[in-house]
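Researcher: If convenient, please comment on what follows.
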Amino acid sequence: MRTIIEIGGQDSKLILLEHNEEDPYRATIKDFAMNELCAAGTGAFLDEQACRLGICIEDFAAMALEAGAPAHIAGRCAVFAKTDMIHLQQKGTPMPDILLGVAYSLARNYLSNLVRGRTLDPVISFQGGTASNLALKKAFGDLLHFNNANLIVPEHFNTMGAYGAALLAHEKVLLRMSGH
């Protein structure tokens, strides 16, 4: 794995890794990007839009995956997304199409703000709390032209960052104890 897409409730990150030839279990960060002030590219955006539509976030993905086609929704700003969603509801757009449109808008926002023309090599690890949303995984897969084998959600997707930090802290303690 050389690419990590991590989207949590409050932030989103892109991490590009370079493998260590001497130790296949180690990698160094080659490039890193993180969203800035706006929550439009995070799980908070999904929560906010689901709430606006009166949908429980736990039901979001299942409903969205029933869509015929994703509705177009602006993803750069929650205010613009709200305007688009109200207009779509007034036009009678089916709720699953709107929900899938929200997932696609978040994925497009992420790709335009964090990826910015970088090449994402498969296999990509999709992690953070939003990785449990299969509609968002579908949106990323479609927009990146990746299949399920190239965009994976690890078993412990929601705690991978904490796990990595714990491993680094443990390694530093061991180095300190050994006198290095």
Notes: Residues 95-115 form the longest helix (21 residues). The helical segments are 43-52, 57-64, 78-91, 95-115, 134-144, 160-177. The mean pLDDT is 89.
